[in-house]
Amino acid sequence: MELKIETLLKPRTLNLSINVRNPIVMAPMTTFSGNIDGTVSESELSYYKARSKGVGIVITAATYVRPSGKGFLGQFAAYDNSFLPSLKKLSQTIKGEGAIAILQIFHGGRMAIPEEIPGGQTISASAVAPERPGAMTPREMTEAEIQDTIKAFGETTKLAIDAGFDGVEIHGANTYLLQQFFSPHSNHRQDAWGGSVIKRMNFPLAVIAEVKRTIKENKKKNFIVGYRFSPEETENVGITLEDSLLFIDVLSTKGLSYLHSSIMDFWQSSMRDKTNTKPIICKILNQINGRVPFIGVGSIHTPEDAIKALNSGAEFISLGREIIMEPEWVNKVQDGKISEMRTTISKDHGRSLDIPEPLWNAIINTPGWFPITK
């Protein structure tokens, strides 16, 4: 086991020259805990500080690039220069503990909260409501709005650069705006932004191009650009694994620093095709074919789970609930204290684990999200 642990904690590189102390990534998870003005709260800074001590990379909770894109209560913002001091505090907190700091950037699209956005009307690729009870039907975005949103991703990237982050992760997963443009369920357009599967790629590809243009314009060498995707949708007709493999093939040629999946179980098979029991991770890695580093995620609880996932060919693995429950996950692996790793939480743990109160309330009031003991 000792040799395997050494392998688990072996340093990695991104962009050929950025040293990452180990392949463990703190997954991006909303905290619901930003200040009312959209700035990062002190409780969030404490939360990130505690969890940046051992991991190689911290990917922050998603921040929104336009006021129309707010997707969560208590979500911190990054849509203009007024948020720069707040973002600087966050990057400095993470980097001060030795981790690579990556800001996840997104727009909620039709999944934005109507009560939290100007005018109360959500927008998306097409006027198609999510398949959720009571969901609002979004307004189809105009060409001008599409261009403005693409520009917004570039502007937020500039904020990330100025704030001292090491990179950004473009959030193209979890049913948000970029995925909405790629999905045949939410995108019924017949212009340059929709129709065929190739045209449905155009919006996220334009966002990637704008982010990379901004980095080049600001002469920021080795700035990390990752892209997160969800391989499938359950909606009919929604994104299929075949669609995503085509998209991954294109993404692998765009000079990205990494690709990052968003799935519940690293080894899960297709959600849509129950006759195909082969893990979809195998198809994803085969399609990438070593062209870009891959971050895997999903129900990786123990060091043994992590080693098995890395042995699949993933260069990095991201941990979500595990890092919330056990901020010292990596350090306890390194110190040979695996038996002392916390695998459940109790209702008395919130303050001692530096978990902000709104996040803690969500954890204890959402059945099945976390293993909770009395």
Strand content: 5-15%
As laid out across the biggest beta sheet, the strand order is 3-4-6-9-10-11-12-13
Seen as an oligomer or otherwise, the chain set is single chain
Helix content: 25-40%
**DSSP strand tally:** 15
What is the distance, rounded to the nearest whole angstrom, between the alpha carbons of the first and last residues? 33 Å
Structural class: alpha/beta
Biggest sheet record: 8 strands, parallel, barrel
> How would you spell out the order of helices and strands?
HEEEHEEHEEEHEHHHEHEHEHEHHEHE
Which stretches are low in confidence, meaning pLDDT under 50 for 5 or more residues running?
none
Helical segment tally?
Answer: 13
Brief overview, please?
By secondary structure, the chain is of the alpha/beta class.
Q: How would you describe this structure to a colleague?
A:
- With 374 residues, this protein is of the alpha/beta class.
- The protein has 13 helices and 15 strands.
- The strands form 4 sheets. Strands 3-4-6-9-10-11-12-13 form an 8-stranded parallel beta barrel, surrounded by 6 helices. The protein has a two-stranded antiparallel sheet with strand order 1-2. Strands 7-8 form a two-stranded parallel ribbon.
- Helix 3 packs across helix 4 and helix 8 packs parallel to helix 9 (280-288).
- The longest helix is centred in the middle third of the chain and has 21 residues, at 143-163.
- It starts with a helix and ends with a strand.
- The mean pLDDT is 95.
